[in-house]
Amino acid sequence: MFTYTELVLAGLIALVTTLVLTYPVKWLSIKLGAVDFPSHRKIHTKVTPRLGGIAIFFGALAGAIYLQPSHPHLPEIFLGAIVILITGILDDRYNIRPVVKLTGQLLAASFLISSGLIIEKLTLPFIGTVELGFISVFVTVLWIVGVTNAINLIDGLDGLATGVTTIALISIFAMAIIDSQILVAYLCISIIGANVGFLFHNFYPAKIYMGDTGSNFLGYMIACVSMLGLFKNIALFSFIIPVIVLAVPIFDTLFAIVRRAYNKENIMMADNKHIHYQLLRAGYSHRTTVLIIYGFSALFGLMAILLSNASIVINLVVTLFLLALFQLFAEMIGIVIGGKQPLLETLRKLVNKGSRNR
């Protein structure tokens, strides 16, 4: 059984390790030419190193080594993380094709499946536990690849992916403590500490980016810890708890797919119409945009915690509130179907008009 002192020390070890390692990683990124150049689609205006995920990985590893967790699935989780890390490094340096990145993600997923870490069942309201049977492997792969890419796609502003994943992990960590899920708590606190250490370098104005190395690693690890913890929960609405925790990146990704398909665009091609770009166009500053998305992430995380161990009445109340949040979130994103204007852009114009009238 863990003690809170051990958890705090592990988080601090991960934080300090990442904070210190990021300095040589910056030098290595520049030396290898793994840098992010400004372009019409990007916000930054100067060349920025982008191998920060290496520092996050080793920081999280240092925290985990201190805690020395033990679990049958750990070797395969670690092997998958190594594959994801290498794939991310290659992409940050050489901009490899999407199919190559997908291959790396599928290979990592295959390690987990071979170890028996599979989403075998879901708990549905008013129905109970539903065994997935032969589609469990497909659902598992879809979850791992989907979450990994969702975190990758939201990594568009300084400190955004770092903060959003930290908030999601804090939510999962809280539920792990409540349910006494030791391994999940160990992994979460190690990654949280590493993220906080990296945020010192990554918050606006960022001195280094985590790159695909970091976003893919964080997405993969969140997918893993949710499979170890959240999908094992037998509470009433547990089948949507992992989705709620990651609502911001997941729904931003889904809306991006719908938007690109509707506009007859390649769904694999990056664009500048994600939620963070919409908020910037609405007139919010870089820092304020990131903080707004942090706020939404924290709200969804809190709702997930409430849903995880609540009565049916509280579940229904929270669900209604979540539906309202999802609606607002969708309007904020402004899916750009049929030329619709994002809600926040309209609100911004009304505020500005009122100010001029005064």
From TrEMBL:
Query: Is the Cell membrane keyword given for this protein?
Result: yes
Keywords, in A-Z order: Cell membrane, Membrane, Transferase, Transmembrane, Transmembrane helix
Asked whether the keyword Coiled coil is assigned, the reply is no
Membrane topology category? Multi-pass membrane protein
Q: Where are the transmembrane segments?
A: 6-26, 47-67, 73-90, 102-119, 125-145, 157-178, 184-203, 215-231, 237-258, 288-307, 313-339
Q: What is its main location?
A: membrane
Q: Where in the cell is it found?
A: Cell membrane
What is a GO molecular function of this protein?
Answer: transferase activity
Quote the protein name from its UniProt record: Undecaprenyl/decaprenyl-phosphate alpha-N-acetylglucosaminyl 1-phosphate transferase
Organism expressing this protein natively: Virgibacillus halodenitrificans
